[in-house]
Amino acid sequence: MRAVLMLIFLTTTTPLAQAQWTIQTPTTADLRGIDNVGKGIAWASGTNGTVLRTEDAGYLWQRCTIPPGAEHLDFRGIQAFDANTAIVMSSGPGDQSRLYKTTDGCQTWTLLFTNPDKEGFWDAITFQDKNFGVLIGDPVDGKFFARQTADGGRTWRSFADDNALAASSPNAGIFAASNSSLFLPENPNYFFLIANTQGGSVLFESSFGTIPHCKNLGTNASPCPKDYLWSKLTTLPLGPISPSKGVFSVGVASNSDQDVTTAIVVGGDYLHPNDTAGTAAYSTDSRSWQAATTPPHGYRSSVAYDPKSKTWITVGPNGTDISTDDGRNWRPLHPTNNDAPDADQHWNALSLPYAVGPHGRIGILNPSALQPSKP
Questions:
Q1: Going by C-beta distance under 8 Å and a sequence separation of 6 or more, which residues neighbour residue 89?
Q2: Is the pTM above the cut of 0.70?
């Protein structure tokens, strides 16, 4: 009896080690879009017109109705607002790039906008709130495609100084790997776009300012003295680019006033995912950049910041890395003995605590995997 009681004591008081990742595969589609709204609500998107939704923090994923005519589209970006409302972006040449919106929990969809440029290709979409959003794509007629909306996606107009987005070469472009080549913080006065040009990877900032020669900027738009103005800040220190190599994702940490405290970019060569050269850089002011001293251990397609633990996390096909010193040094986040051996791998995009990847792969990161930093 004494031995039995001791066994019961040990069983009830010794905590069980938890897995870092909960892995699910609710679909066979390749997933690249993920957006965590909060309060248990998240949306994901991918190939073959696939859109998924959860209302219980990922315990169950609902397969949404496919938008009309989207059975063969690749939904690489999704922007969600609540359990009922989301906008999904497909990426593809010409009219294969489209925007659809649902307001009834993905039972029905409305086609908002179709790419008007035969040679165009959309790469990312994101919103600051339910009204203001930005859509970007590869260059058309020598300059990067950029549109903004102030009415929740019903209408889209050009920026006043689109010429500032001139591409330096015919091979310039933006990678549509994770819908994170564009970052809009809560501060309404600026946002960032990363791109790859002949001179290397660059970061554009768009800040709200006065337009020297104001003009009517679109249907039903009256002339106004201010708009978002683009400026190329710097070439990012990630080395030369190629059709498969460059910068893929940007993330920003902000203070209580929504001022940039740290900005991180990640990338690499997706055809050589184990190469570590040019995989990460950091900045404390978004203008002067330095390559990571200890880079992530391979190509990375998405980066995100966890403010609770003050930890950066970046993912890719060959693994996951974290940084607790604002991007200067990265170390692998290896699976525990309770995880599958590849639990840290095969990821395309992040919206913490979620990650998505090929073949319907969805991961939910256990909060204990990122321990809060010491004060």
A1: 33, 75, 76, 77, 78, 79, 97, 98, 99, 122, 124, 125, 135, 179
A2: yes
Distance CA 340, CA 337 (A): 8
DSSP at 368: G
The answer, yes or no, to whether residue 98 has pLDDT greater than 60, is: yes
Q: How far apart are the first and last CA of the chain?
A: 47
What lies within 8 Å, CB to CB, of 41 at 6+ separation is 53, 54, 55, 80, 82, 83
Q: Tokens 């902000």 appear where?
A: 254
Half-sphere exposure of 250 (CA within 13 A, CB side): 30
Asked if 146 and 165 count as a contact pair (C-beta separation under 8 A), the reply is yes
Mean pLDDT of 356-363: 98
Nearest C-alpha neighbor of 248 from the set 231, 232, 270, 263: 270
Residue 123 amino acid letter: D
Nearest-angstrom CA–CA distance, 44 and 35: 6
CA distances from 312 to 91, 157, 317 (A): 27, 34, 17
Cα separation values, 5 from 2, 12, 15, Å: 5, 11, 18
DSSP 11: H
Give DSSP secondary structure letters for 147-204: EEESSTTS--B--TTGGGGB-SSTT-B---SSS-SEE--SSTTEEEEEEEETTEEEEE
- Mean pLDDT of all residues belonging to the chain: 88
- 231/204 Cα distance (integer angstroms): 6
For the ranges 20-24, 132-136, 142-146, 216-220, the lowest mean pLDDT is seen at: 216-220
How many other C-beta atoms lie within 10 A of the C-beta of residue 372? 12
Strand partners, 111: 100
The pLDDT tens digits for 291-313 are 999 999 999 999 999 999 999 99
CA-closest candidate to residue 155, choices 221, 88, 68, 91: 221
d(CA 3, CA 177): 57
Residue for token pair 């738009």: 221
pLDDT at 216 over 80: no
Helix/strand/coil for 3: helix
State phi, psi for 230 to the nearest 5 degrees. -90, 150
